[in-house]
Amino acid sequence: MDNRNLQTPSQTIGPFFAYGLTPTQYDYEFESWVDNNMVADLDAPETIEISGSVFDGEGKTINDALVELWQDDGEHKLYGRFGTGTDEKNRFIFKTIKPKSVDGQAPFINVILFMRGQLLHTYTRIYFDDEANLNQSDKILNLVESERRNTLIAKKTEVGYTINIHMQGQKETVFFDL
Amino acid sequence: MSDIIQTGFDREIQPNYLYEGYKSTLLRAPTKPLIMPKKADLTLSGPVFKDFELGALDSDLTKNAVKNGEPLGERIVVHGKVTNEKGHPIPYTLLEIWQANSSGRYIHKADQHNAPLDPNFSGAGRCMTDAEGNYKFYTIKPGAYSWGNHPNAWRPNHIHFSLFGGDITSRLITQMYFPGDPLLEFDPMVQSIPLKGRDLLISKFDLALTEPDFALGFRFDIVLRGHHATPFENQ
Ligand SMILES: [Fe+2]
């Protein structure tokens, strides 16, 4: 690490981020500058809903996580965020579009997770179960042992896709060190 | 983006996912090894954030939630420079901040700490770095508060920060502390940081920034991972 400036250490987002980072979603007066609607036209035919829950090591849903989606297929560079504390089932819900395949890679969305109990955020990805061929040949997915690969693959629903994130346990989601 | 020299989390500075002193990590830290892709196989260019206007009072927490008077507590001004690991400034990147009031109470509905709310203070704000990577905001010095981690656990005074930089690897959420706080040595959050990095989150009192008859100045510089420029449209 020649001459580099030292990275500022990370600290937890804690339990009380909502009125600062997602105030409109949680009904605080401060206005959000970004939310879970990542596309302008929510009724466009290509708009999909991606939803799911985040589970802790005891299998309980986490109701104070902040989920961020970052996607970039060259054409659409999109960002959205949503806290898991307002949905009655503590799900995250996003409206976005499915990214395209870039250079033969399987299409995917980057996910950054923040929560109380995480001193450092975690990175994971969302792939899509109707892209079986591209998923099978994808370089990044192939870094993951085959039994765990399905933790990254969202299932098609009538309105989009659904995927659950497990922090620990048998179904522990694959996280990345980026 | 060929100018990216990407570095991972510096493990000599960054906390681990699992830290037993901070109980909530026990059920939330990944237990299996993380997957580390080759840098060449990653698409790192981030999204372009949609254009939005910062509100005129977004960076002045002493004014942005006033209902019927001024918030109670010590006014402070916090400034600093945001750079990458090479020391290059990161211009026009967003900082979001949130904190407790001067009594140590958050307006968050789930905060049960028995200290008064301040009707004229919300503790939420945001600001953008300028062309040289500098930022500045006004606020009230947050109070300490107790929490349930262990018996008689108290958080030192702190302000929560959220920053972007250029891509997903530069994303940072952290907390700024104040010099001389006696609670720092007892706080699991602070102690989770390896010794080499621990002082980096403690702001410095800055007499030159202190505004006469108005506010004490504190300096807090921030270094983000990753190496490329801002994705924000609204410079
Ligand atoms: Fe806090």
Describe it.
The complex is a heterodimer of chains A (178) and B (235). By secondary structure, chain A is mainly beta. Chain A has one domain: Aromatic compound dioxygenase (Protocatechuate 3,4-Dioxygenase, subunit A, Sandwich), CATH 2.60.130. Chain A has 3 helices and 10 strands. In chain A, strands 4-3-6-7-8-9-1-5 form an 8-stranded mixed β-sheet, with no helix packed on it. A two-stranded parallel sheet of chain A has the order 2-10. Chain B has 235 residues and is mainly β. Chain B has one domain: Aromatic compound dioxygenase (Protocatechuate 3,4-Dioxygenase, subunit A), CATH 2.60.130. Chain B contains 2 helices and 11 strands. In chain B, strands 1, 4, 9, 10 and 11 form a 5-stranded mixed β-sheet that branches. A 4-stranded antiparallel β-sheet of chain B has the order 3-2-7-8, with no helix packed on it. In chain B, strands 5-6 form a two-stranded antiparallel sheet. The radius of gyration of chain B is 19 Å and the shape is globular. The N terminus of chain B is likely disordered. Fe (ii) ion binds next to β7 of chain B. Chain B: It comes from Arenibacter echinorum. Chain B: Belongs to the intradiol ring-cleavage dioxygenase family. Chain B: Keywords: Dioxygenase, Oxidoreductase.
User: CATH topology of chain A, anyone?
Assistant: Protocatechuate 3,4-Dioxygenase, subunit A
* Poorly predicted runs of 5 or more residues of chain A: none
Largest sheet of chain A: 8 strands, mixed
Structural class of chain A: mainly beta
Oligomeric state of shown chains: heterodimer
Shape of chain B: globular
CATH class wording of chain A:
Mainly Beta
**What is the domain tally of chain A?**
1
CATH architecture of chain B: Sandwich
Number of helices of chain A: 3
Shape of chain A: globular
**Series of secondary-structure elements of chain A, N-terminal to C-terminal:** HEEEEEEEHHEEE
Structural class of chain B: mainly beta
Count up the domains of chain B.
1
Q: Taking all residues together, what is the mean pLDDT of chain A? A: 96
Order of strands side by side in the largest beta sheet of chain A? 4-3-6-7-8-9-1-5
State the total count of DSSP E strands of chain B.
11
Instruction: Please identify, by name, the CATH architecture of chain A.
Output: Sandwich
CATH level 4 superfamily of chain B: Aromatic compound dioxygenase
